[in-house]
Amino acid sequence: MNSSFSKIVLITGASSGIGQATARRLAADGHHVVLGARRVDRLAALVAELQAAGHSAEYQELDVTDVDSVRGFVEAAHARHGRVDVLVNNAGVMPLSTVDALRIDEWNQMIDVNLRGTLHGVAAVLPLMRARREGHIVNIASTAAYRVDPTAAVYCATKYAVRALSEGLRQENQDVRITVVSPGYTQSELADHGGDPQVRAAVRAAAEQLAIPAAAVADGIGYAIAQPRNVDVNELVVRPTAQN
Ligand SMILES: NC(=O)c1ccc[n+]([C@@H]2O[C@H](COP(=O)([O-])OP(=O)(O)OC[C@H]3O[C@@H](n4cnc5c(N)ncnc54)[C@H](OP(=O)(O)O)[C@@H]3O)[C@@H](O)[C@H]2O)c1
Known about the structure:
Blueprint: E1 8-12, H1 17-28, E2 32-37, H2 40-52, E3 56-61, H3 67-81, E4 86-89, H4 104-132, E5 135-140, H5 153-172, E6 176-183, H6 197-210, H7 214-226, E7 235-238
Parallel strand pairs: 1-2, 1-4, 2-3, 4-5, 5-6, 6-7
Bound molecules: NADP nicotinamide-adenine-dinucleotide phosphate.
Residues 12-19, 37-39, 62-65, 90-94, 113, 140, 142, 183, 185-186, 188-190 line the site of NADP nicotinamide-adenine-dinucleotide phosphate (NAP).
């Protein structure tokens, strides 16, 4: 079974960081990438870059917290190409703080983007993939899906949940491949938005010391996608060698 043919790959959160690097890697592998995020100016620039390099790419505005937006993103790609081979549920936010700070809006944002957004993606593609008895869902979790640290309780809760969801999905589906990719410190914009400013500064300092390029995570995603359809890479943890 050869699965190295060009696939239709949808990537959420493709406007920066790991999603952007994944778009570059998968487009270079010969896949057609469909990029989603809210900052469409970034997506347009990335699609232009990929097309100029001879690759195949398109984009659509996407807010993963809105189930209709996610459904529209998937349905438009499905209508254009007749199939969706892979969904990379990558969009995420990480505004960190201790629980006693009660930054409830930010808790809800993490639940809405990291967990509900992933569920919205699953809901949009799973019926299509089950009908074809083929497909691949790649959920981006984190090393925070394996270990809890202070200031990250809610973020970890969302990432543990993504991992649990993925394991349940895997057990329920014999034809659809399910992969969880869990990065450690990775160069991106993740620590640039929200959360306690002191925590944000500490995370950025640690990231400056340790972080691996987003392309290192994208390579793991590319590896999982390139496997034959009867081989499901279930979990990949990709972190800096020096991360404890
Ligand atoms: N960097 C790390 O150290 C690290 C470690 C472990 C796990 N991760 C995970 O990796 C994934 C990617 O993050 P990153 O590190 O690459 O951070 P990033 O550079 O901040 O990228 C996050 C992406 O998510 C998108 N996004 C946020 N809210 C969205 C929404 N409501 N709808 C659609 N897209 C949305 C952003 O696009 P717009 O703002 O344009 O919508 C952006 O493209 C996340 O799930 C994150 O939790 C990262």
